[in-house]
Structure to design on (259 residues):
């Protein structure tokens, strides 16, 4: 749970002086970590990566020390291009319910997830990151199998190409060992794909057909791009026919969006 700079270091405490220090065996030196502890009697690093210590003073207390991470997900979107009218993004919530991408991915069911992170420095991802889609899960990081091409990292933005995504599927895209020079964390971004689910309620119904019909003939823009189901750059009869053809389809019950 602590950043890479703590790997290989050794925590130790002094009962009488009430401090915890950090020993670096590479340099044979110790540095201050915590002080003012009332009689520390034990130290341990837990399975969750936190440092725990027992203090005998004040009636006996157990403390957990966690590192305040600097790297965090700021936003995540599903991005597709609409012919010559540019790209429009479907927001993918970072926790809870997954955003629903209603548009087709093309012949190879291709999609692109763009994740923007915050941190102290340039973002990197573990290993030679690749994206994988198999039985409803995608993995980015060491050991990932390329299904959509190499993941790219540019500044604080990570772009993840995906292919072979089913038209009714929820994907959990995991970013392994994201590092900004200070903190290392992993993140999971949920993404649901359901072709024709214009209102993003987890199912394709008459309301979705009606919405596309109402937008037919309008210029595609940031307010109605979900109605351009085939991502052709125009909202027309082809989009209406496509939604009709998938009417009655829902996300699988086991991975359906939680309302």
């Amino acid at each position: 749970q602590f950043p890479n700079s703590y790997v290989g270091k050794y925590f130790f405490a002094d009962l009488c002086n009430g401090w915890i220090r950090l020993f670096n065996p590479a340099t044979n030196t110790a540095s201050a970590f915590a002080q003012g502890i009332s009689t520390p009697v034990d130290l341990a690093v837990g399975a969750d990566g936190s440092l725990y210590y027992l203090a005998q003073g004040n009636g006996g207390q157990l403390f957990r020390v966690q590192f305040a991470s600097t790297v965090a997900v700021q936003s995540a979107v599903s991005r597709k291009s609409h012919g010559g009218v540019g790209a429009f993004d479907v927001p993918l919530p970072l926790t809870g319910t997954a955003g629903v991408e209603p548009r087709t991915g093309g012949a190879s069911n291709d999609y692109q997830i763009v994740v923007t992170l915050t941190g102290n420095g340039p973002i990197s991802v573990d290993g030679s990151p690749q994206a994988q889609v198999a039985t409803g899960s995608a993995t980015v990081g060491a050991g990932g199998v390329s299904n959509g091409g190499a993941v790219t990292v540019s500044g604080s933005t990570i772009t993840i190409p995906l292919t072979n995504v089913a038209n009714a599927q929820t994907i959990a895209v995991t970013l392994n060992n994201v590092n900004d020079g200070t903190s290392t964390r992993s993140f999971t971004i949920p993404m649901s794909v359901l072709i024709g689910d214009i209102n993003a309620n987890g199912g394709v119904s008459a309301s979705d057909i009606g919405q596309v019909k109402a937008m037919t003939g309008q210029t595609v823009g940031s307010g109605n791009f979900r109605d351009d189901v085939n991502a052709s750059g125009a909202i027309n009869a082809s989009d209406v026919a496509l939604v009709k053809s998938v009417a009655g389809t829902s996300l699988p019950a086991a991975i359906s969006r939680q309302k």
Observations:
- Confidence is low (pLDDT under 50) at residues 254-259.
- DSSP finds two helices and 15 strands in the chain.
- The radius of gyration is 24 Å.
